[in-house]
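Here's what a typical entry looks like (Zinc-type alcohol dehydrogenase-like protein):
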Amino acid sequence: MATQMMKAVGLYRYLPIDHPESLMDIDLEKPTPSGRDLLVRVKAISVNPVDVKVRAPKERTEDSPRVLGWDVAGVVEQTGPECTLFKPGDEVYYAGSITRPGGNSEFHLVDERIAGKKPASLDFAQAAALPLTSITAWEALFDRMGISQQREDNEGKSILIIGAAGGVGSIAVQLAKHAGLTVIGTASRPESAEWARSLGADHIIDHHDDFVPQLESLGLPYVDAIFCLNSTEKHWQRMADAIAPQGKICSIVETEEPLNLTLLKNKSATFVWEFMFTRPMFQTADMIQQHHLLNELSRLVDQGVIRTTIKEKLAPLDAATLRKAHALVETGRTIGKVVVELSQ
């Protein structure tokens, strides 16, 4: 049987995004699913800061092309022999694993335990905006910081979300509001502040200024939880000042310098990391939780509780379009998500 090929976008060298070889159109062998893998016909992907970070210039080359892309919506084409959760024809969405080839291709393999049923009310582009940011926000709020999903448990409690208008922030605001928390978001531009308010943020403060005086003006001496999506070390002192005694801080942004954890000692405050690739990367015993949370998110979306955060849609899925999408995300000023459809 002749080898089947597929179109993809990949890289051999890590170059500035304006270089024509930073992302290239390539042909790859169409993969075959084994074990619990699904073979998915990709319909749309979205571009995240992790794509930009992985692709950023560095002194390294790849012998075989590296394919990026960790947000996919598509249709199951074929299932591995051990699959029990999906069948061919099912519409799915997922973020995948950073230790495997990404989804910037016509077909993609993903472990079914980290894929969810696509929201029926969304098209593929709208759905592709959700998985990575939603898993990150969900795990940070409910797994890492242990916030209850029951509204009555959160009466009078507050959360500060630093970077509320970005991809993860856009979902975290909605999830926190749905859980009954008072949501304070940070934004520094009128358009980002307006976006965060439209998603449910009760208050907006400026992350360029000290947090405590701004919180006090809202009648909040402290916040019970802080979710940091922007420059952990820059905001570290401000977060330590603003967190409530026995409160919890979670960040997704790695640091260039060590953090002074002693700042949290007198408050017995907790600091925890969130990295949504941890479960698939280490094949943790509970990695199926990503399947469950994506299914629950689909339910909330279809009920109108959570809305997609797509803000810009591009097509087709080729190197030129992806270079444009990477350049947009690389500015660090995007609101919501940039999505690329396979075809127009």
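The chain has two domains: 5-130+278-341, 135-273.

More examples are in the samples folder.
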